[in-house]
Amino acid sequence: MAHPHSSNDGSTGMIMTGAIVTVLLPLRLPAPYHYAVAPGVTLVPGDIVRVPFGKRAEIGVVWESETIPPDGIALKTVAERLSVPPLNVDQRRFVDWVAAYTLTPAGMVLKMVLAVPEACEPPRRVVRYAPAGRRPDKLTAARTRVLDEAAKEPGTATDLAERAGVGAGVARAMAQAGLLEALPAAPEPLLPAPDPARPGPTLSAAQQAAADALRTAVAEHAYSAFLLEGVTGSGKTEVYFEAVAEAIRQGRQAVVLLPEIALSAQWLARFVQRFGEKPVVWHSEIGLAEKRRAWRAIADGAVPVVVGARSALFLPYPKLGLIVVDEEHDTSYKQEEGVLYNARDMAVVRAHLARAPVVLASATPSLETLANVREGRYRALDLPERHGGAELPAIDVIDMRANPPERGEWLAPALRAAIADTLAAGEQALLFLNRRGYAPLTLCRTCGHRMQCPNCSTWLVEHRSTRAHHCHHCGHTVMLPPACPACGGVHWAACGPGVERVAEEATRLFPQARVALAASDTLTTPKMAEALIADIIERRIDIVVGTQVVAKGHHFPALTLVGVVDADLGLSGGDLRAAERTFQVLSQVAGRAGRAERPGRVLLQTYQPDHAVMRALTSGRREDFLAAETGARASAHMPPYARLAAVVLSGPDETKVERAARALSAKVPHQAGLTVLGPAPAPLALLRGRHRRRFLIRAERDLALQAVLRRWLEDVRVPSSVDVRVDIDPVSFL
């Protein structure tokens, strides 16, 4: 029997034949398990192995060696060592660190490292066939067609059969009869390497100073942390490309994390222009075969540069020399399912363990990052001006109380006039609204009944493009019923705008303009996003109506007007970061205007023109806003001046969830520096059919918060039907 064990000394020595090892499996298990090492087998910590587990075999990682077997346990034996490089000690320490910090079983973190189990297996040999020797005089028509196709281009039995219009059995029988011969398997081609010697663009003095600092840090092979801060369009990407080039020259690996990898077409084009080849790209849209090849090459140390979503941070880099987190403030870096982690923060830890620099890049850094700069943990590199002489756009507000749009419409007269002027000048406009769909709420005009999700505490969002109502949390979809289920009324009202409704209005107001919609549910693949971006750059689109997917990092030379339809949207909801996020999002989207030689203009439709966020944006006095926001956080004893954690209980039976919440409440820890609020229904009290109760914990920064939470949760028995999820440093409060 396998036996659980939890210690880990991080040893790297060789394990002799007949020893005992602990193996961490990529499963939700509390600890690694003991296994025996078979005679004649030599293992080292980090080796990837196959082991028996229950009635099946599992792939795991040797975590450490043991000399004393557990009492009274007959150990199973490691089945085999797989022919992939071992995880080095830094990678294993990272798994343990993330698990301890997030209060997650280490096996679940390891599962992110072993993201492609197929990559641990030997590559499947693909047999290709060509005609063998002289063709016989008598052949069936089917076999003749197969030989003709093989003569044109060798292929697999299935491929040749499809091309010849016959069954695959015909081609396989021909191979057995000697009519087709198998060709030698071609080695998998190496991935082309980016060239760090290619000349980059001419840098300004400020860019050159920042690039020199980053190159020096990479060459030192030591941990350091930088905030690369610069206004939108200041050339932050070109600066950290110089650090990437230095990592390649040093023979080390560089990782660049992007918040919207599906919209990275322009970033990749700039990379190719600088280095001549694409980096390896890692995100959820990549096919299994490509992922298998990339994972294996990364583990072999054959990939110098990876660009990817947050999950790319956990890939097995043996020679990690640089991590860049672009748009470090972006909330997309927080993983909200499975292991709950913030990739920005984990990137700092990963760099520290690998003795490598980490660069956090942003035009609007988070308050947490700015606090780390003030406290001396990070070094700030500032790019205060747009590259190439372009000027920042002028930002003005449209007071919707004094200048509202027509009834039932969403674009104020001043914004309409600005769009008309922009189009007349042959330039492009962007209308920004961070709300998908056509309308966020549909109700019955007779009785007020609202279309609500049966699985979540939220309204259904109308999408005219699919003629259906969708829940953006669980995916529930229904067609609008012809009659109200509550009163039988037949008149429905769509309340409020989404981007589809704004696009409809823009099309009606400017019938000659070419209007395009850009949202996560309309750009479902990287290719679709790339095509849209190309259309904007090539001036095949006049008005873009989009959500935050078009607010990040794009360079559209002819786009000179940005209109924000509802600048107040993010200021409600009780989120402690609401003002900060709104400032960041609006600054980012404003930065799309006037990035080339044409001056830009930004109009914010708002009912709160005197709000601190609006004043900071229109005056350009960001420091005033940051000072006020920092002071408010300090007074309220909130991050970054304290730590937060959320404990969320959920389950299909509301009574059991409530009972478990009361049991935890009875055992709430009481100590100095700790405040526990709750339990209370979560803002989304019903999510995906599960009832939810939440505790919110606030702690002093020097308190060992994880240890306190671990003792508390271990002290209460919670039924298996109730899930307990701990979120350290929560970003979302839903």
Number of helices: 19
Determine the structural class based on helices, strands and strand pairing: alpha/beta
CATH classification class of the largest domain: Alpha Beta
CATH architectural category of the largest domain? 3-Layer(aba) Sandwich
**What would the principal axes of the Cα set say about the shape?**
globular
Biggest sheet strand line-up? 11-12-10-13-14-9-15
Low-pLDDT stretches are: 1-12
Largest sheet: 7 strands, parallel
Q: In percent, how much strand structure appears in the residues? A: 15-25%
The Rg value, from CA coordinates, equals: 29 Å
Query: How many domain units?
Result: 6
N/C terminus separation? 43 Å
Provide the fold topology.
Layout (H helix, E strand, L loop, with lengths): L2 E2 L15 E5 L8 E4 L11 E6 L2 E11 L13 E2 L7 H14 L3 H8 L15 E3 L9 H12 L4 H8 L3 H9 L3 E3 L22 H15 L4 E7 L5 H14 L3 E5 L7 H11 L4 E3 L5 H12 L5 E4 L11 E7 L16 H12 L2 E6 L4 H8 L4 E5 L10 E6 L13 H12 L3 E5 L8 E4 L16 E3 L4 E3 L6 E2 L13 E4 L3 H11 L5 E4 L7 H12 L5 E4 L12 E6 L13 H13 L10 E6 L5 H8 L2 H15 L6 E9 L2 H13 L7 E14 L2 E10 L5 H10 L8 E6 L6
Walk me through this protein's architecture.
- With 734 residues, the chain is of the alpha/beta class.
- It has 19 helices and 30 strands.
- The radius of gyration is 29 Å and the shape is globular.
- The model is unreliable at 1-12 (pLDDT under 50).
- It has six domains: 3-114, GIY-YIG endonuclease (3-Layer(aba) Sandwich), CATH 3.40.1440.60; 129-182, no CATH class; 205-388, P-loop containing nucleotide triphosphate hydrolases (Rossmann fold, 3-Layer(aba) Sandwich), CATH 3.40.50.300; 390-435 and 498-630, P-loop containing nucleotide triphosphate hydrolases (Rossmann fold, 3-Layer(aba) Sandwich); 437-496, no CATH class; 643-728, 2-Layer Sandwich (Alpha-Beta Plaits), CATH 3.30.70.600.
- Helix 4 crosses helix 5 and helix 15 (578-590) runs parallel beside helix 16.
